[in-house]
């Protein structure tokens, strides 16, 4: 279940959105690492603010909130106060697949081919679930090694649904594509 989180809590979790807590830069805003009162680290993503974006924010919040799959980064909470719109995700600690494949951050060895194949299969399972098995259909549209995060066990998690399209189905037919 997606929980509403106050802006005050997010300020406390991120040290007032301190630049030392920046873990990424999205298309419009920064992404921060923060520790909420439950003690677990979270990734807090700021969203672009505009009147036309309001409807997309609500749709995406509802859609992402019900995506529950082992290979999808879970949305845990949101904040919508004043002009701020933020999404709170589970923090995935082991960088992106891109970082591991391209020996970033001083790493000297990338993982073996067997692990690469396992990761590829699990990404495919996540995509198959998005396309065929969840309550609605999600087309990612921006899948790359940068949008695949790896947890401490190298389990891949699909992230970055900012460009995604959500398709509604009725009796097996596409009713309405919605660009998010």
UniProtKB/TrEMBL annotation:
It is a single-pass type I membrane protein. One of its GO terms (molecular function) is ATP binding. It is found in: Membrane. InterPro entries: Kinase-like_dom_sf, LRR_Rcpt-Like_S/T_Kinase, Prot_kinase_dom, Ser-Thr/Tyr_kinase_cat_dom. Residues 17-180 form the Protein kinase domain. Its main location: membrane. It comes from the Eukaryota. This is Protein kinase domain-containing protein. PROSITE patterns: PROTEIN_KINASE_DOM. It comes from Quercus rubra.
């Amino acid at each position: 279940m997606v929980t509403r989180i106050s802006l005050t809590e997010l300020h406390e979790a991120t040290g007032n959105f301190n630049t030392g807590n920046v873990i990424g830069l999205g298309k419009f805003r920064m992404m921060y690492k923060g520790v909420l009162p439950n003690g677990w680290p979270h990734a807090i993503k700021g969203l672009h603010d505009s009147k036309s974006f309001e409807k997309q924010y609500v749709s995406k919040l509802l859609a992402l909130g019900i995506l529950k799959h082992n290979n999808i980064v879970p949305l845990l909470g949101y904040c919508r106060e004043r002009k701020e719109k933020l999404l709170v995700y589970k923090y995935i600690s082991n960088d992106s697949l891109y970082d591991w494949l391209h020996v970033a951050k001083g790493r000297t060895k990338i993982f073996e081919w067997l692990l690469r194949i396992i990761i590829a299969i699990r990404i495919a399972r996540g995509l198959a679930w998005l396309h065929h098995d969840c309550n609605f259909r999600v087309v990612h549209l921006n899948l790359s090694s940068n949008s695949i995060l790896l947890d401490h066990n190298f389990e891949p998690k699909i992230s970055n649904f900012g460009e995604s399209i959500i398709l509604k189905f009725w009796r097996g037919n596409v009713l309405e594509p919605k660009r998010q």
